[in-house]
Design goal:
Endonuclease III, domain 1; mainly alpha; rod-shaped; two-stranded antiparallel ribbon; about 110 residues; 6 helices; single chain
Length: about 110
């Protein structure tokens, strides 16, 4: 798939494509192309992730693609979501406590 990029009147690099005749908004027809590794892109991904109520990779990427096309987007979203503290906290497993050895008093016969 080729992106068929073009510069719009604001100097933004946008995705061309086959949606020219559709009734969608300009931003949805021609999403902005963003690099995969940039601080601003990480912030945009984080905002989309929190707006989707900490949904997974696919839902976050779908939400982002309504307005942006991130190069190698699936890997970029995965990288940012891997560092989400709220998601890490939700996925934590309870700590498994080890039982201590019984004291000698409790294991020996005393009559």
């Amino acid at each position: 798939m080729t992106l068929d990029p073009f510069l719009d009147e604001d100097g933004l690099l946008r995705v061309g494509g086959r949606l020219r005749l559709s009734d969608l908004d300009y931003e949805m027809k021609y999403p902005i192309i963003l690099p995969k590794k940039h601080h601003i892109v990480n912030l945009i991904i984080g905002r989309a992730h929190s707006n989707t109520l900490h949904a997974g990779n696919s839902q976050t990427l779908t939400t982002l693609r309504q307005n942006f096309w991130i190069l190698n987007g699936r890997a970029a979203v995965k990288r940012v979501l891997r560092n989400c503290v709220i998601c890490k906290r939700q996925e934590m497993r309870p700590f498994e406590q080890k039982m201590a050895d019984l004291p000698k008093m409790r294991t020996s016969e005393t009559f």
